[in-house]
Write a structure and sequence with these properties.
Layout lengths: L3 H17 L1 E2 L1 H13 L14 H15 L2 E5 L2 E5 L5 H18 L20 H10 L1 E7 L8 E13 L2 E8 L6 E4 L3 E10 L25 E7 L1 H9 L7 E6 L4 E8 L3 H8 L5 E5 L1 H14 L2
Antiparallel strand pairs: 1-3, 2-3, 4-5, 4-8, 5-6, 6-7, 9-11, 9-12, 10-11
């Protein structure tokens, strides 16, 4: 069997369970048969039909490779995931695109991605190992603002990707507080024998009220925005933030209102600016005025 079939089948299994919640094996088999009927024989997921032995093997591989469990209950099967794993979903989506480009080689140029690599990703394996082993790390940090490079020793806690750059949230050895470091500015990275210190605050809540990598001290602000009904479809299908709530719809006036609980930061302003006149801020007034100034400055 072609090895790529395994991954394509794993992707379809996850998709089917997320769409239907619970499935019997007979339903799974029927779905795979329907999928294979629509594609050429050489690219079918199971040319000889999906059988229970293959399904049991797929269950084991999904848990071993991706931490995704399929459990059985009353003759039905359920997908069990600790959380929605965006990295896994992105990986499987990319695999699909690579496969499509191979089998439809004449249309390969029709599949276009941004074509840019997330900067700093080569540092990730070392940092993840340090986080897993609760070890401090040391590196030389280079600044973009002209300052001289500095040697750092920190306790690493999490990695965050934003706008095709990776960032490390860590606690410097000389202070009691979390700081952010761009991975593309880190050199001479090494894991130390010294155990990492406890974080001064919960690192997994650090970005809770942020878009991007910036935040303010104190509680978030209640933000109310207005957009048109067409743009609202995009906000509904891909919320700007987990706190997004649809507040009011006025189709007669082509208005849809949303609320958010967020820190007002430069990253938030950039996010809002990209929508131009299709996004209007109603509150807070300070954010409204900041956005006006930025639009005016951008227009010259």
């Amino acid at each position: 069997m072609k090895k790529d079939r395994f991954f394509r089948r794993y992707r379809r299994l996850i998709e089917l369970f997320e769409r239907h919640k619970s499935l019997s094996f007979e339903e799974l088999k029927r779905f795979f048969d329907e999928i294979d009927q629509k594609i050429p024989l050489e690219d079918q997921l199971m040319p000889n039909g999906y059988n229970i032995r293959t399904f049991q093997r797929d269950k084991l591989e999904l848990e071993s490779l991706f931490g995704v469990r399929i459990i059985s209950k009353k003759k039905a099967y359920y997908l069990e995931r600790d959380r929605k794993d965006k990295l896994l979903d992105d990986l499987l989506n990319r695999f699909d695109l690579i496969h499509l480009r191979q089998i439809y080689s004449k249309a390969a140029d029709a599949l276009q991605t941004e074509g840019r690599k997330a900067e700093g990703s080569e540092q990730i394996p070392i940092i993840i190992k340090a986080i897993n082993d609760r070890r401090s790390i040391a590196f030389r940090y280079h600044y973009f603002d002209g300052r001289e490079p500095e040697d750092k020793q920190v306790s690493p806690f999490l990695l965050r990707e934003y706008r095709l750059r990776w960032y490390l949230l860590a606690q410097p050895a000389e202070t009691q507080g979390l700081k952010l470091y761009g991975l593309d500015r880190i050199q001479q990275l090494q894991i130390l024998e010294q155990e990492s210190e406890d974080a001064a605050e919960n690192p997994f809540e650090y970005f809770r009220h942020s878009i991007g990598i910036m935040r303010n001290e104190g509680p978030p602000e209640i933000i109310v925005i207005e957009t048109d009904t067409q743009q609202a479809h995009y906000f509904d299908s891909q919320p700007l933030h987990s706190s997004q709530q649809k507040m009011e719809v006025n189709e007669a006036q082509d208005q849809v209102f949303y609320t958010y609980q967020l820190h007002v930061t430069y990253d938030l302003l950039l996010e809002f600016m990209q929508f131009g006149s299709r996004l209007k801020v109603h509150q807070p007034q300070t954010l409204k005025e900041q956005l006006k100034r930025m639009h005016a400055q951008a227009a010259g």
